[in-house]
Structure prediction request, 384 residues.
Amino acid sequence: MALLGSTGSIGTQALDVVRQHPDAFCIEVLTAQNQADLLIRQALEFKPNIVVIGNETHYEKVRDALAHTDTKVFAGAGSIADAATCESVDTVVTALLGYAGLNPTMKAIQAGKHIALANKETLVAGGAIVCRAAREQQVAITPIDSEHSAIFQCLAGEYMNPVERIFLTGSGGPFRGKKREQLQDIKPEQALKHPTWHMGRKISIDSATLMNKGLEMIEARWLFGVKPQDIEVVIHPESIVHSMVSFQDGSVKAQLGLPDMKLPIQYALSFPQRLSLDVPRLDLTQTGNLHFEKPDTETFRCLPLAYQAIDKGGNMPCIMNAANEIAVQAFLEERIPFLAIADLISRTMERASFLPAPNIEELNESDAESRRLCQELIGTAFPS
Prediction:
């Protein structure tokens, strides 16, 4: 496999899965953006054919550290995309952060590689293009996100049965139950304290704003071919039911488990097999009550913005995603308040150029334009 983003949360847990099944999985490619030291340690352990460091300023350090090995070292975003097409690779795990995952995923699809997808922004920004390319190349896209893995598992054996509704569950993040006036002075360290999952910084903020559920809703729309209005977000603070699917006979199937990403990662890599996995087991007698509630879309405005974006279609989800990435980074750098994230996304969506049927080059241009517009809005509203 090629593991794109091996030093992030998903990447490191994917390598934990490989450690448990060294006879089943072989690492051919490892890539990282900035964490050169961890990438070097991973390369020394797994001995891949190719290593790519996205930030070219770290190239010499990685090259010199691996000079005594047979691993070939490259640098730059273009090399990450090229590595995904390596002839010896069967499966590409896309665990890159944000919009940066789109182009490598497209190249891997065009090369006929099976995609284990952990980069939801790929389908948020370019779902129509990506899914069309996957159909044309007869490439399977298997989801890694816990919610989409749950839906995928619920649909196993049900492909001839129409789906009535998808219930996309989410914990509600660290601010579940709070109102807007209670979120005025939120600091990044508060927003990063997710109640049930250990995740990267960007996705943790997305969880706090409920944008993560919006991105997952758009991803589910493309992965499973359902209408956005047939995908219902449900807040489930225990994070035991990872998602549910209802069918036309009224039956509802759910996938349950403790919140551990290694399970959906391994399932995406081993499907249709279920390999053994050394993780804690769910004990329902110890779990207690399970709670479900509707999301508060007045307080957490990012979720309705995602529905607006997918309803509009075209490049609007790409615009929304780009603005979100810029706004989240600005919040993490304490340049904007927490509640400004949704405001900036909304204003960028209003100002950016709309394209009803963009190609991949136009999506790249739209992403760049939306980032620039959002930065300008930040500079105007929150001058440093």
